[in-house]
Amino acid sequence: KQWYQRRVRGPRSVRANGHLLMDGEKMSKSLGNIISLAQGVQIYSADGMRLALADAGDVLEDANFNTKQANAGILRLHTFAEWVTEIVAQLPTMRTGPTSSHLYDRIFANDINRALSQTDTHFGNTMFREGLKTGFYEFLSARDRYKELAAAGLGMHRGLVERYLRAQIIILAPICPHMCDYLWREVIGESGSVVGAAWPEAGPVDDSLTKASEHLMECVHDFRIKLINYTKPNTKKGKTITPNEPPNSITIIYANDYPAWQEKTLDYLKSTYNAAENSFPDNKALLQHLKTIPEVKPFMKKLMPFVAYVKEQVAVKGVSVLESHLSFSERDVFLQNKEYILRSLDLDDIQLVESASHPDQKLVADVCPGKPMCKFEKRSLNPDTPSKMTRVVNIQPCTPHFSLDVPVFDTDTVEDVIARMKRTDRKLKTKQVTLYRYVDSAKGPRQMLAFDQPMMWNKRQLDLDSTVEYEEAGLKVGGKPLGDTICYTVS
Fold first, then answer.
1. pLDDT tens by residue, 161-177
2. Mean pLDDT of all residues in 78-98
3. What's the helix, strand, coil split of the chain in %, to 5?
4. Alpha carbons 26 and 29: distance in angstroms, whole number
5. Three-state SS for 183?
6. Cβ contacts of 277 within 8 Å, gap of 6 or more
7. Contact 347, 247 (CB under 8 A)
8. Between 232 and 90, where is the model more confident?
9. Mean pLDDT over all residues of the chain?
10. Are 132 and 72 in contact (CB under 8 A)?
């Protein structure tokens, strides 16, 4: 009665879960698999224990404390803390300026907004495992994806990295406050405790950017598998067929629109989709109606495989698959991430062809929006463009980077040359490369390198957007002779 009269001080609500499990087995004295909080803190640390408990389960399901995941969590936290320390030291060397020019910048900014919004919702509903998933595990994946995409371009953007660091530390703080407070104060240099920091403000989430990112990753994964199958030996009737020569070029065939029969099929599937039960009518009923549509009738052999494919995609990606047009430009996604695709497949050239303009329409009959086709081949690159083989020398002492011989083509930009260097030497893949020319292109390369002063002999940095001009006398950049040898540094 006394508590009831003073109920304003009591708990607003009570939540309960099922049994407590240890590695999938119910905790019990007879099994001897009980661990106290004090023991857990000694073994896994306070933050490691909190991370494992948050990941154990939500709501009424059995909470499973997994010792393997607890150990993996400690390693993940340690790796994250080390990365933050390293990346803060690299911030002054990162590029600045607008983030709207590059697709990978916009995708990462959108990933930050999505992680903040979803994690705020999950924590508000006391769904800590879901919040940990969106606010840490998936957030780390988004960061790693940005590192890969940006490494193939101009590198990571300082403003975006700083925003990510603050957002990641703040939204992880409710789970791992001790480590986050250390990173907040000592590493990124913020004043006050992270516990008192305001929740980061999330901007609007653009679903089309999320879909574009997922589509790019799926396509590169699919291209990589097809490339492996293209180059490995085939066995047919006990005979080993000579494998194809390793290719250096990929042609990606994409479609802007569905053929008329597929568009009619999608329209009908969309009209019969049951959103409440996430289901379609049975195939017999679908076939009965679709075969009466004039545009569909000539393609009856391809109809049901296409319907099966659409159903599978709806189960994985949702009802947006039934739209007759993608929410993003497939061509732009491939074009703006050209270097990432080439480096992922270890190729030198990429061609984009719209299916409607392809000479062999039978070959590309199955290409549709969101389902591109690729073709590998070995061919001469830029056969009609004059080029010159150029020696590129690393002038830094005590590094694992040496001299490279790289073809430089007429009208190449400096950025193109750097991209070609990264494809030639895989150790440069994730590095920031800067090119220099000698003021005296004839005398400079003959001078002995001074390891304590690598910038001796009047070297000049080349701007990324500078264009190479080919002349019979040699290559030039900005009207200045480039010579047969140029220099590079790596950071």
1. 999 999 999 999 999 99
2. 92
3. 45, 15, 35
4. 10
5. helix
6. none
7. yes
8. 90
9. 85
10. no
Q: How far apart are the first and last CA of the chain?
A: 70
How high is the pLDDT of residue 459? 67
Residue with tokens 């296409």: 306
256-274 mean pLDDT: 86
**CA atoms lying within 13 Å on the CB side of residue 269:** 28
Per-residue confidence at 382, pLDDT binned at 50, 70, 90? low
Token readout for 316 is: 């994985």
Threshold 0.85, pTM exceeds: no
The DSSP symbol for 61 reads S
Do the beta carbons of residue 245 and residue 276 sit within 8 Å?
no
Pull the structure tokens for residue 68: 């393997």
Q: What percent of the chain has pLDDT over 90?
A: 32
Question: In sequence order, which ranges of 347-405 are alpha helices (DSSP H)?
Answer: none
Tell me the two tokens of residue 478: 């900005």
Residue 389 contacts residue 368 (beta carbons within 8 Å): no
pLDDT recorded at residue 4: 60
Quote the crossing angle between the two packed helices 103-124 and 158-172, to the nearest 10°: 10
Statement: residue 440 has pLDDT above 90: no
From the list 138, 109, 106, 142, the residue with the least C-alpha distance to 122 is 138
For residue 210, give the H/E element and its range.
helix 207-231
Q: What does the block give as tokens for 24?
A: 């999938």
Asked whether 135 and 119 are in contact (CB, 8 A), the reply is yes
- Cβ neighbours of residue 63 under 8 Å, at least 6 residues apart? 17, 18, 19, 20, 21, 53, 56, 57
**In the chain, count of helices (H) and strands (E)?**
16, 16
Q: Quote the tokens at residue 277.
A: 């039960």
Compute CA distances 9 → 12, 91, 150, whole Å. Answer: 9, 48, 52
pLDDT digits (tens, 9 = 90+) for 114-153: 999 999 999 998 889 999 999 999 999 999 999 989 888 8
